[in-house]
Design goal:
There is one protein chain. Helix 2 packs parallel to helix 4 and helix 11 packs antiparallel against helix 12. This protein is 50% helix and 14% strand. The protein is built from twelve helices and eight strands. Strand 6, helix 9 and strand 7 form a beta-alpha-beta unit. By secondary structure, it is an alpha/beta fold. It has one domain: TIM Barrel, CATH 3.20.20.
Length: 274
């Protein structure tokens, strides 16, 4: 099977000795028209992969920023069909890898297999299913693989070693390593937790390891990049776009601030996680 855009992207990054930047936004926040524009601006700023959050009414695994983004998206009338149309519009001008970050419920509404097929046909490259447990994952992974989509998985500091092995066994594209559990502690403790989760994941997979959760400054982005193959930034991007206002000028200002995080990641060339 032909490599996905995600796999091709990380292959190019590895050849260049460059770290990746994965940017998260909620699809439909504040509306789908703005989503198309935000993806364009993030790509122009240097983002390598875009995670599109599928808005859900009970996003229990998300923090306040992404919960509010989901609420704004749902209030604007965002639907799965509308998000797929948005992906098609993005694909008219861009080949940037797109990952759906979703709970299972929005995909079950029309049937999981149908939802996956529709996503693949629209131009999605992978899915990260937040509430899919290891014990129930096999049939869902099979359906993703059948449609040529990568299954991106989450590994956290509290994930036991044997579960890490099981999670990454059928993962694809990259592994999202959550940098910390609970609230942020001292930086030395944060680095210890992050390095631990990266080391445990690396023992069981050769996939790129993307480190995320809590990145809000260029210094943090650079520190995360030094430990991993890629950095994931979500809440900061969501908050920055929202704070700057949904106007052409506001979106440009937000993209300029986010570009500072991307540049910090790109300035790091260590391959310590590989």
């Amino acid at each position: 099977m032909q490599p996905t855009r995600i796999e091709q992207c990380f292959s190019r990054l590895r050849e260049r000795g460059e770290k990746g930047f994965v940017a998260y936004i909620t699809a439909g926040d504040p509306d789908l028209e703005s989503t198309v524009e935000r993806v364009r601006l993030l790509e122009e700023a240097g983002a390598d992969v875009i995670e599109l959050g599928i808005p859900f009414s009970e996003p229990l695994a998300d923090g306040v920023a992404n919960q509010r983004a989901a609420e704004r998206a749902l209030r604007s009338g965002t639907t799965y069909a509308g998000i797929l149309n948005t992906v098609r519009r993005i694909r008219e001008t861009s080949e940037i890898p797109l990952v759906f970050f979703s709970y299972l419920n929005p995909l079950f509404v029309r049937g999981f297999e149908t939802s996956v097929s529709m996503a693949a046909e629209a131009g999605v490259d992978g899915m990260l299913l937040v509430d899919l447990s290891l014990e129930e994952a096999a049939p869902f992974q099979e359906q993703l693989a059948a449609r040529g989509l990568n299954h991106v998985v989450l590994v956290t500091p509290t994930t036991p070693e044997e579960r890490v092995a099981g999670l990454v066994d059928h993962a694809g594209g990259f592994v999202y390593c959550v940098s910390r559990a609970g609230v942020t502690g001292e930086q030395t403790e944060l680095q210890r937790e992050a390095k631990n989760v990266l080391e445990r994941a690396r023992r069981h997979t050769d996939l790129p390891l993307a480190l995320g959760f809590g990145v809000s400054t260029p210094e943090q982005a650079r520190a995360y990049a030094d430990m991993s193959d890629a950095v994931v930034v979500g809440s900061n991007i969501v908050n920055t776009f929202h704070a700057e206002g949904d106007t052409p000028e506001g979106r440009e200002r937000a993209a300029g601030k986010i570009a500072e995080l991307i540049q910090a990641v790109k300035s790091t060339t260590s391959t310590s996680a590989s």
